[in-house]
Design goal:
There is one protein chain. The chain contains 19 helices and no strands. The protein is mainly alpha-helical. Helix 7 (about 115-150) crosses helix 8, helix 9 (about 205-215) packs across helix 12 (about 265-295) and helix 17 packs across helix 19.
């Protein structure tokens, strides 16, 4: 690693926490800590949403997918915009009218505290598993790049340092620090990706550019008859992607928390829909990196270049194809992607814990002789410890456990969206029907993820959420019919 690269990485990692804390302002209450005073500009929330839902895995995976498949991930972005638009106009007015701090408090008012806490626990468990594996997997390419650049550090040490830095500004600055740091982090890795596109295009020959322009890699969808096994067909991308976006941005505290911090419903809608457009643009930018690398390598396969997986493509280019300084910026971008999703997760899990389990938290705060704000910060620290332990646990597991960790959030999204559909649009829905249906659907989805292999392949991730919603609605309707039959 050159001195310039190391300097860029160190400057970034050391200055970001101070900038985030300075922008966050004074935290004087729990509501400010988890709600951000509800005065954040919509564009900052928009950037924060994009940074939260993307990670190091996003940055390294999409160029590899585009290398072999073209712009198919941009097709998913179309579905994401559709889904977020539906959330903006159907869900957000209900949330803002109730002045909820946690999205699950809406369920509590509609179906009672048992429903609220059941869904909140589901969010906490699935978020711990999903973010734990993202943290572990996100540090693997960073540690590998540092090792090749002659600055070897153990993967666990990189993880602990990043978690420590992220925890510092998240614990002290609350949601405002998370939002502003996310905005900065997104700008860093977008600048790095844009610089890669400019560099690759500048050094490409006329023949390579001609080859790329006349290839079939600018199609947004796959033409496949395997509708439920291929996530990139038009139906899977637009319908499945839209429903998946409705679940993630309409029922997940991780993302809804940011939207609820907006100044008004109009600002929240702009932030939410704008984030969908920005995600599509980010997918396009990262896909261009992969496609330009395909042209640069004269259509050679990954195996011919000595790469074992598509995820190794972009890290290999960072190490061997970038000039000094820019390589450091890209490594900083990879770190920022991990820090952005991690800080958002810590704050969202803290808010769900404090708001959905308010009475037990007040009791524990009195027992520990801590102020409400001090207890909130302690909860943030405890969740950080849990995430590190879960990530280290995945480090000693094999492939199927990794797949489980990445898929578990999608399995929970379907039942959660189904619950909110009942709450928002069915006046006759009753807790006695919805709560058992939610538990049964969650169990069925976990079983489907683990054991259902049609034609020997796992069901496409874009169809997991629609499947869960359909099962949840069917179970809820069946439970209501049985209860009424007994009455």
């Amino acid at each position: 690693m050159s001195a310039i690269d190391l300097l860029v990485i160190c400057i970034y990692c050391l200055t970001l926490p101070f900038i985030a804390f300075a922008l966050s302002g004074r935290q004087d209450s729990v509501s400010t800590y988890v709600g951000g005073r509800h005065d954040l500009p919509w564009w900052a929330i928009c950037l924060s949403l994009v940074a939260t839902e993307t990670s190091t895995l996003t940055i390294i995976s999409i160029p590899g997918i585009a290398y072999g498949g073209g712009m198919v991930f941009v097709g998913l972005g179309v579905g994401y915009v559709i889904g977020r638009s539906l959330v903006a106009w159907l869900f957000l007015p209900r949330y803002f009218s109730g002045h909820a701090g946690s999205v699950y408090q809406y369920l509590g008012r509609r179906f009672g505290q048992a429903m609220e806490r059941t869904v909140s626990v589901t969010f906490l468990v699935t978020r711990v598993l999903a973010e734990g594996i993202r943290l572990f997997a996100g540090m693997l390419p960073v540690a590998a790049i540092l090792s090749v650049m002659e600055f070897p550090l153990p993967q666990w040490l990189v993880m602990v340092v990043i978690v420590g830095l992220t925890l510092g500004y998240t614990m002290l600055g609350g949601l405002r620090a998370v939002v502003w740091s996310d905005a900065i982090q997104l700008v860093v890795y977008v600048m790095g990706a844009a610089a890669c596109v400019a560099l690759l295009y500048h050094h490409a020959t006329d023949m390579q550019i001609h080859m790329l322009r006349h290839s079939n890699r600018f199609h947004l969808f796959h033409r496949s008859r395997l509708y439920f096994l291929d996530p990139y067909t038009p139906c899977a991308a637009m319908i499945g992607g839209a429903i998946m976006a409705m679940a993630s941005h309409g029922t997940d505290q991780l993302l809804v928390q940011r939207v609820l911090a907006a100044r008004s419903l109009a600002d929240a809608r702009k932030a939410l829909v704008g984030s969908g457009v920005m995600v599509g643009c980010l997918f396009a930018l990262l896909s261009l990196v992969g496609m330009l690398l395909w042209a640069r390598n004269d259509e050679r396969s990954l195996a011919a270049m000595g790469l074992t997986t598509s995820d190794a493509l972009f890290p290999d280019f960072i190490v061997h194809g970038l000039p000094q300084g820019l390589a450091g910026l890209l490594v900083a971008g990879l770190l920022s992607a991990t820090m952005g999703s991690l800080s958002a997760t810590l704050n969202a899990m803290t808010s769900a814990t404090l708001l959905d389990f308010a009475a037990p938290c007040r009791t524990m705060a009195r027992w520990a002789r801590l102020s409400p704000l001090g207890f909130a910060r302690l909860v943030t620290v405890l969740w950080a410890v849990v995430l590190v332990l879960v990530a280290l646990g995945f480090a000693r597991s094999n492939g199927p456990a990794v797949v489980f960790g990445l898929s578990v959030a999608s399995c929970a999204y379907g039942p959660m969206l189904g619950v909110f559909v009942f709450a928002l649009f069915s006046r006759r829905a009753d807790r006695r029907d919805v709560l058992p249906a939610f538990i049964v659907t969650l169990a069925v989805m976990c079983g489907a993820m683990l054991f259902w292999r049609p034609h020997g392949h796992a069901i496409a991730f874009t169809w997991l959420v629609p499947l869960g919603v359909a099962i949840m609605l069917a179970c809820g309707g069946l439970a209501r019919g049985i209860r009424q039959g007994r009455a």
